[in-house]
Prior knowledge:
By secondary structure, chain A is mainly α. Chain A is built from 10 helices and 2 strands; from the N terminus they run H-H-H-H-H-E-E-H-H-H-H-H. Chain A has a two-stranded antiparallel sheet. In chain A, helix 1 runs antiparallel to helix 2, helix 1 packs parallel to helix 9 and helix 2 crosses helix 10. The longest helix of chain A has 26 residues. The model of chain A has no long low-confidence stretch (mean pLDDT 86). Chain B has 2 domains: 80 residues, no CATH class; 112 residues, no CATH class. Chain B has a two-stranded antiparallel sheet with strand order 1-2. Chain B is elongated and about 65 Å long. The N terminus of chain B is likely disordered. At the A-B interface, helix 3, helix 4, strand 1, strand 2 and helix 8 of A face helix 1, helix 4, helix 6 and helix 7 of B.
Amino acid sequence: MAQALLIFIIALAVGGLGSMLGIGGGILLIPLLTGLFGVNIKTAIGASIVSVIATSSAAGAVYVERGLSHSRLAMVLEVATTAGALAGGITAILLSPHILSFIFGLVLIGMAYSMRRFRGREALISQTGLLDTNYRDPLTGEVVRYGIHNLPLGMGASFLAGNISGLLGIGGGVVKVPIMTLVMGIPMRASIATSNFMIGVTAAASAMIYYQHGYISPSSAIPTALGVLLGARIGTRVGGRVRSQKLRQIFQAILLIFAVQMFAETFRG
Amino acid sequence: MTSDQDCIPEAGDEKNTGQDFDPAENASAAGSHAEEPATPAAPSSHIVMPVTEEQAGKPLFPLEGRSSAPASPARSRVYVPPNLHDLIAAIPITPEEADVFRHRRQLNDIIHTLLTVGLVASTAIMLFGLALDLIQNRALSTAVPRFDEVVTHVMAFRPSGFLALGLLILIATPILRVLGSFAAFVHERDWRFAGITFLVLSVLFASLLFGRG
């Protein structure tokens, strides 16, 4: 009971921070759950997956209202992400917790690195005749028309993102959004909204696997999901998205510390 | 590949539309016409009104090749007034385009409702389960019943049943969204995308099956 309350409070903080940085909370939740509460890594992944679905649905309701998400593109890429998640989920069930911790540590380092580098300009935004669509930018009122570039590469990246999502219980937006903006020529707003839609569906695929293997435990998954949901809501109300370089640097440092922790868990016992 | 049905079909050069668009002008134009009665063609809550050139004063949304030339009768200007929930202001489109656009908005409204209901229902059921668990057991369940036992647990009023039900509704929400997309594509007779969506549903079904290990 006390533990559930603590998990809720931590998830609240993670949800708030995540919404300010524009990331899902999974990458922080899993090391916190295993490190502070001694939760089995697979159960922590299960809890994270559930919270990923919750935030995806909550954010999706907003994006769909603004007409930002490209549902056809999402559906095409989801074939790859769900297949990746299915493979990743089954792999995660079979792998030993130590190896999972190690992979998670590697992903944390990769993410800290990509946060430093990901300041690139958007690729050419133009109509290509492939899944052309448009949306009205909520801030400028400008109608942005765009099509899809490099679909095969995008499919490959989506499979990888789905695979990481299924394996480690994170959303995978960190992989997809840069690929969509830099390689596929999708405007940033549309990328975030479309990726968010895909994340929910992808996480649902692996969640069903984790559920049936008993790795979704109410005592950790429910306080986590409720905390992240409420935290993200507060985060968007209070701060919106922060562009502060300092916050990003602090976040990178946290990721590296967690990476060390996950490596330590790899070689423990 | 042809243009996306979801979209307002191509109506001009993107560079031009981007630069010439003036949000303030659209806002005022939209405000001044907001009281006009809806046409019989558009009885839904999302009112789509035809606007002539004089009514609008000048083109709401000048497009290359159209701003100077008079609009052909077949492509009379129509705009969609904003409502509180939508920042989409005024886009000159043909009645056919307006139909597509209204359809897209209706679909978005349905998805919005689905996501909201899914979240609220799952949260409420999980909170109820938590309260029940604390009252009955003074602790939280760590395990969930199997899929096929969830209903039995709920009927027996066991906390784990409600906790599992809340979690499953949460997990099912994005899947229902995909099912909704499938229905929409079938309704639009867009067989290619219905097929792609079916593929996604198949993978989801596979994870339901293979998940049992």
